[in-house]
Amino acid sequence: MKVYGLFLVGIGVFFGVIGLVYWFTSYEDGGFLMLIGSALLGLFPGSYYLWWSSRQKPQADDDPSADMAEGAGAVESFPGSSIWPFILGMGALFTVLTFVFGLWLAPLGGALILSGAIGATVESRRGGIVPLPVAPAGSDHHADGEPHPGAEPA
After folding, report:
1. Percent of the chain with pLDDT over 90
2. What global pTM score does this model have?
C-alpha cells in the first residue's frame, strides 16, 4: 500500500508544481485551479494510503524481494452474468440525454434506474440466478421431494 501512496503523492506533487509554474507564466485562473484540483486528487488519497500503510502490517507488494505467490490471497467468488448493470447504464444514458433532448426522456431514465437498482439488489440478496432442482424422468416430484405444481396429491 505504501507504493500506491507514494505513487499518488508523486502525481499530486507533479500537478502542484505544474500548477504553480502555470500560474506564474500564464496568470490564467481556470487552468491553475484545474491543475491544483488534480494535485489534490493525488495528494488526498496518497496521503491516506501512506498514513494507513504505517498502521498496517507490511504488504507483499511493499517488499521488493517478494514473489507473486506471497501476494496471492484467497480468490473470492465473482457474481455471474446479470442484466441489471446494463439496465442501470441505459437508465443513466437516458437521464443524461434528458439534458440534450428534453424532459420527456426523464421518466424513462428514472424508471430504468429504479428498476435496475431494485433488480440488482434483489438478485444480490438471493445470490443470483438460482436453478430449479430437476426431477428424475417420469417422477411427479422435484429432486428435493416437493411435488410439481399441478401434480396430483399422493
Report:
1. 51
2. 0.49
